[in-house]
Amino acid sequence: MSLSDFEVQIKRMEGQEDILLPQKMSAAASGFDLHAAVSEPVVLAPGERKLIPTGFALSMSPELEAQIRPRSGLAFKHGITTLNSPGTIDADYRGEVKVLLINHGQEPFVIQRNERIAQMVFQLVPQIGLREVTELTETERGSGGFGHTGR
Ligand SMILES: O=c1ccn([C@H]2C[C@H](O)[C@@H](COP(=O)(O)OP(=O)(O)OP(=O)(O)O)O2)c(=O)[nH]1
Ligand SMILES: [Mg+2]
What we know:
The protein has 151 residues and is mainly beta. The protein contains one helix and eleven strands; from the N terminus they run E-E-E-E-E-E-H-E-E-E-E-E. It is globular and about 55 Å long. The relative contact order is 0.24.
């Protein structure tokens, strides 16, 4: 199997010639790190959320999706995470990819242009057909959930 089984097209937004494109930081990293395409430094106050542009848009085949996930280092050190984690980039979305960051930390956090703010992981999406029925198959678990097997 080749190293790139799928080609995803990426297009810079206008005026973003200097923005770093998503980048894998190690050979087998699962995510491409995403860079902030802010025109000037952006401050996230404690508790504040902001939509941060990345400077690019994507085109991929319908069998794929991209997930926007937090970087654990930012989460651990600064309480910075993605609010809608994992964010969903639909295969047919052609707008700019954006990252919804929230500051769960105690200190203001400054985002600089081209800083790595999140990561993007591509996933296969099985094509599912939903079929309505009146009876579901029986299982041992049945409707037990939400901790019914204990803590
Ligand atoms: O973190 C994210 C999440 C979403 N999107 C873009 C791509 C995605 O395809 C689109 C819609 O996202 P989603 O389906 O999560 O949001 P929605 O509230 O259901 O909006 P819509 O009604 O447009 O589907 O917004 C991003 O750029 N970043
Ligand atoms: Mg949606």
